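worker-03 picked up job from queue 'complexes'. Input manifest follows; two sequence lines, order preserved.
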Amino acid sequence: MLPPGIWDAAAIADKAIDYAATFGAAGAVFFLGYGGSLIASADRLSIRRVVLGSSMLSVAAGAVQIMVSAGSLGGEAAGMLDGSLIHIVWQAGAGRTNVIRAIGLLLAAIGASSDRPPWWALLGAAMAATSFAWAGHAHSLHPNLLPMLLIGVHLLAVAFWLGALAPLGIVARHGDVPRMAACAARFGSSAVFVVGGLMAAGLALLWMLLGDFNELWRSEYGRFVMLKLAFVAGLLGLAAFNKLRLTPRLQDGDSRALRSLRMSIGLESLLCVLILAVTAAFTTLTGPAAPG
Amino acid sequence: MFKHLLPVAALVGMILACPAFGHAKLRSSAPAADARLSAAPKSLTLTFNEEVRLAVLTLTVDGKNIPVTVDRGAPAASQVSVALPALAGGKYQVQWSALSVDDGHVSKGAFSFTVADPATQPVTAPAAAPAKPR
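worker-03 finished. Artifact:
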């Protein structure tokens, strides 16, 4: 029998990859929707490749997640291929979330091939990003309509923000300052509202899950959330720096600001990886305090 | 005025009605954890704090596996019973794993109980008590 730690580590790593790939694909499609007309056709092609590659990675990670859960249930590697264990995992929400995500990503990937993604591609991206709401702690609340709406808003905002980093990085690498300035300004003007929605929905959901903000330092779950919030604060700081300092400099034609922006996008990407890894860890290892 | 307050009241009610949830936990078992039984039990019952699908239940004594059948196709329930074969005297180790249907998380645990050897003096069994998760 394999030690339980291996299954947890595998589940966390796979979940973090699934988050990154799904938000990366969905956010890139959103970016093509609001910023596609501002960028060069070569960059659009690169972003489409990001959508396609991330979509395939997301679907594969979802399938592996089901197998890892089945293996963890069975307590041995053979459980990963045990039909009855896979069936249990599939029926307990994993099937629903993976089917919704796969359909959404298929629509997003097909729609991303046109110059401006059609409405159904944006809907597909939204379906994929919010598919995580159909299982997990928020879904387990009773009644769960409001928690699911909140987590849906939170996930859409995460996809918009995190998923824009790869497209912005692609545009930034070519050194076209006016184009980069236009993209950063377009993203920044929407991001203010999106980040506001993300924080408001996240905090409201946290309140519903914890019931008491003192749980943030009392419980293991709360301490994981605090760690995540620390990384989010760093990300917010960088985003504010980009919007308030770098974007105006880019708009003034300052090419040195482009180098700073590239570094900032790299740092933001690193923070995103940490945020997704911490989220994957606390949603796998712990849960909000259970009654009884 | 009352009509306007209704949606607000419903929203507040939805928020307040939300209980805090964690992963599925074993509340109790029969036989209970660390129970000393004078007679061999005919079944093993696990009671959880939420509905689960029991996937694995292994029963061992002195490192020897005792075959028990888990119905993996059974609907989710907060209480799951498994029929036991005729058990001889000895200390039995129980290991289980289940999937919460609420949040899809895997939960595992282990506990033991003892069946007195028929040749020895009968002992009393304690009431069902929470079993320690592994």
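worker-03 released lock.
Chain B touches chain A at residues 11, 14-15, 17-23, 25, 27, 49-50, 53, 55-56, 72-73, 76, 95, 97-106, 108, 134 (CB under 8 Å).
The helical segments of chain B are 2-16.
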